[in-house]
Amino acid sequence: MLMASFQKRGQSWQYTVSYKDKDGKHKTLRKSGFKTKTEAKNAATLVETEILEGNIAILKKQPFHAYFHRWYTTFKKDYSKTTIAAYKATESKIANFFGDKAIHNITRFEYQEFISKLGESLNHGTVSKTHKHIRACVTDALEDDLLKKDFTRKVIVSGIAPKKHEEKFINYSDSQKLLKYLVDNIELGLENYMLILALTTGMRYAEILALQWTDFDFINGCITVNKQLEYKHQELTTNVLKNASKFSLYKVSRTITLDKFTLELFEDLKNNESYIIDNHLNIIFYKNDIGKIITNDRINDVLRSILKRLNISPVISFHGLRHTHASILLYQRVSIVYISERLGHNNLDTTIGTYSHLVSELREEDSNKTKSIFKQLFIN
């Protein structure tokens, strides 16, 4: 049984709706601030409709950040610690902007302000990832009848523009110069080995960190890539992604062939009596003297220092070596299908999208080559 009453409080009106929940317990919902009694009555009617339809949860004042926390800790709990950390970061952004505002009270205009505010200080990729997290949460809330409208719909994602594509990799001649320096100064430490491997295989930082000697096949000249290191938590995890779809970046595993010189360098390292693996993960790229892995900051500092010393521009990041690897193969006209497999992309769309600038450059050359082929067909 429902019962609504109305009271005037100062210059505004308040409604009070009394009802019994599914367990027979008496509950009360109140809201004030209406300019007229008619407005209060209309609002109360909507509340009564929600109660009759069983959508009581929508009326609870659950803060947006609290609902988001409950959502990802329930449905994303089996994801990697790094992924969970990303969801926690999104939760923090929500709490900082919206405070304790209830999720069902957020409008599309407010959410757009939130996204635009993030875009003032964060890069577009980070803002896009935050929006993706929230949109998935809101979609589930809609399916569970906790929301009536999708306030994330048609929102414009902004952010600081990423570096231009040409700033993400170095050219072929500079790659040769870098590789020569790394080999000539190989005795300087494991960092040089790590940089060489990134340049000649295109592997990701977390994949290289996870390498053990059992992953190297010196007879057949290849590396098996089937795990990555959650370096912040010092844990090895496989590259199998839960809920894998065509949008996943990782394949389950792959085998990467090595050139003769890279293979010999690592075989010499393995046989070097002064090099001993002494860590609980049994991984190669671990600094025994300081008891730590080679961190992302450390390897980037080493690379940038070398690039500046060699007057190589642009000064790319460690991940830029992966892009350099791919660009060299593309310019050498290696099949994009093979490149996609070598990089561990789950589909060609990812590879083409990432290197669309290079593919476009080569397309004109292919077009001219095609015309020449059929021209010769007529002549001959």
UniProtKB/TrEMBL annotation:
<comment type="similarity">
    <text>Belongs to the 'phage' integrase family.</text>
</comment>
<protein>
    <submittedName>
        <fullName>Integrase</fullName>
    </submittedName>
</protein>
<dbReference type="Pfam" id="PF14657">
    <property type="entry name" value="Arm-DNA-bind_4"/>
</dbReference>
<feature type="domain" description="Tyr recombinase">
    <location>
        <begin position="165"/>
        <end position="369"/>
    </location>
</feature>
<dbReference type="GO" id="GO:0006310">
    <property type="term" value="P:DNA recombination"/>
</dbReference>
<feature type="domain" description="Core-binding (CB)">
    <location>
        <begin position="62"/>
        <end position="142"/>
    </location>
</feature>
<dbReference type="Pfam" id="PF14659">
    <property type="entry name" value="Phage_int_SAM_3"/>
</dbReference>
<keyword id="KW-0238">DNA-binding</keyword>
<dbReference type="Pfam" id="PF00589">
    <property type="entry name" value="Phage_integrase"/>
</dbReference>
<dbReference type="GO" id="GO:0003677">
    <property type="term" value="F:DNA binding"/>
</dbReference>
<dbReference type="InterPro" id="IPR044068">
    <property type="entry name" value="CB"/>
</dbReference>
<dbReference type="InterPro" id="IPR050090">
    <property type="entry name" value="Tyrosine_recombinase_XerCD"/>
</dbReference>
<dbReference type="InterPro" id="IPR011010">
    <property type="entry name" value="DNA_brk_join_enz"/>
</dbReference>
<dbReference type="InterPro" id="IPR028259">
    <property type="entry name" value="AP2-like_int_N"/>
</dbReference>
<dbReference type="InterPro" id="IPR010998">
    <property type="entry name" value="Integrase_recombinase_N"/>
</dbReference>
<dbReference type="InterPro" id="IPR004107">
    <property type="entry name" value="Integrase_SAM-like_N"/>
</dbReference>
<keyword id="KW-0229">DNA integration</keyword>
<dbReference type="InterPro" id="IPR002104">
    <property type="entry name" value="Integrase_catalytic"/>
</dbReference>
<keyword id="KW-0233">DNA recombination</keyword>
<dbReference type="InterPro" id="IPR013762">
    <property type="entry name" value="Integrase-like_cat_sf"/>
</dbReference>
<dbReference type="GO" id="GO:0015074">
    <property type="term" value="P:DNA integration"/>
</dbReference>
